[in-house]
Amino acid sequence: MGATFDREGPGARSASDVWERPAVAESAAVEPEAAEVVPSFDLITRFLPDSVVVAVRGEIDLLTAPALGGVVAALMDRGHLDLVLDLAELDFMDAQGLGVLAAVRARLQSTTGSLAIRSPSDALRRVLDIAAMTDLVEIRSVRAEASALGAEQRSDAPAAAGAASPPKPADDSQAVLAALPVATDLVDAALRLVTALTRATVGGADGVSVSLTRHGQLTTVAASDETIAQMDRDQYATGEGPCLAAASEGHWFHVESLADEVRWPQFIPRAAAGGIASILSSPLVVGGRSLGALNIYSNRERAFGPQDQELAALFASHASDILAEARQDVTADEMGRRLRDALGTREVIAQAQGVLMAREGCSAESSYGALRQSSKRAGITVRDQAVAILATVDAVARGLPIAKVTS
Amino acid sequence: MSTELSLLERARRQTGMSHGELWFRYFELGGMSSALELEAYLYDALSPTTHERDLVATALNERFSELGGDHPVPYSDDLDEVVP
């Protein structure tokens, strides 16, 4: 375990005249004996012109909460009253950690100082919500973060509770995540690239588009020019055409000459009116299912020879690979979200058990039994009963009248 | 190993949950066993602790509740055994 902050000189000094640049410094660990048993836990303290940021990595629990409390208390003792707790890399925090936060907030109440919590996980946010501490969470604008990342601003900002903060440092992991495009944007960007490459590489290609089935409907997600975008629209409007056919039947369709084409009598005249003379549509197949098509048109008849058709098939398979990977990411993403929520529920249940154990003086297993029985009696889930118990504790702490809770 | 289905496995089939879905709900409630161990419990190939078994029962019963039913799977502290 490492808790680090600079050892200041004997005289009391204000943060601004000592620290000209952000510094991470060393000091003795708070509890050396506990160091062997404590799992990965790190505190990194950064002194900035107007605040101190304490970043916590790892877990805050029974063993590590005192270390955090000690560091924060020492900072406040030395006059650093504007504190930011960066919890972006916090894996877990239990009631002990909440206790530390509550104590810090209480101590700051009679001062001009402030405490802000930065980048709490969703699970931690729920816990803070139950503990009525969400007012401590720094309000950060996602757009400001994204533009800060682009502008590469390095200065940090004081974080008064509840105040909107200016753009934050580029090394903040949360800002990086916020600035990344969402999964669908990445896929569309990759498909636009394939479209551009296809147009540049396939001989005779005057326009290229990619159409995908999204939400049950075929839509154009990339188009090199307006002519082909219109061609796609004409197919959606008439409900027929080589692109629709390729997408629905899963094999390629080649119109060598629109003038000679007898299929798709509604669509062909419209395309011809747009100046299109030949069309090549290749399906995008993932896992045996056709998800859309890569469409190429030319202003010349019979523009696509065997080599061009092979190239088109190659680019279509590239586009299919992109889609296949994206689908895996979505599932992994969903699974990650579900796991994260599950961890949050476990935390809430564990804390409610803690409350019952303290209240009844019983074991962890007995407390679970009590939780289970009272939730069954109330006709609610164990999780909801746990939430209700924690809400009661919060109400008591705030001196509010308690709604009757069967427990 | 018994050739009859265990009570837990019978209950799981009645709820229509997959082994994975059951594990997830069991995990949400605080379960500490892996998905493989849970499957072993369901097939009587491994004995869970009383507490872990109660968690599996809770996960199953909460699903039964969602489906409009009661809590048919007994807990360790239930005096009456109710066969689903």
Name the structural class of chain B: mainly alpha
The coarse overall form of chain A would be: elongated
Order of helices and strands of chain B: HHHH
DSSP summary, beta strand count of chain A: 11
Number of strands of chain B: 0
The proportion of residues in beta strands of chain B is under 5%
- What class do helices, strands and sheet pairing of chain A give? alpha/beta
Oligomer: heterodimer
Q: Low-confidence segments of chain B, ≥5 residues, pLDDT <50?
A: none
Helix content of chain B: 40-55%
- Mean pLDDT across all residues of chain B, rounded? 86
**How far is the N terminus from the C terminus of chain B?**
21 Å
Based on CA atoms alone, the radius of gyration of chain A comes out at 30 Å
Order of helices and strands of chain A: EHEEHEEHEHHHHEEHHEHEEHHH
Structural Rg of chain B: 12 Å
> Could you name the ranges of chain A where pLDDT drops below 50 across 5 or more consecutive residues?
1-38, 141-182
The most extensive contact between chains is: A-B, 17 and 15 residues
Biggest sheet statistics of chain A: 6 strands, mixed
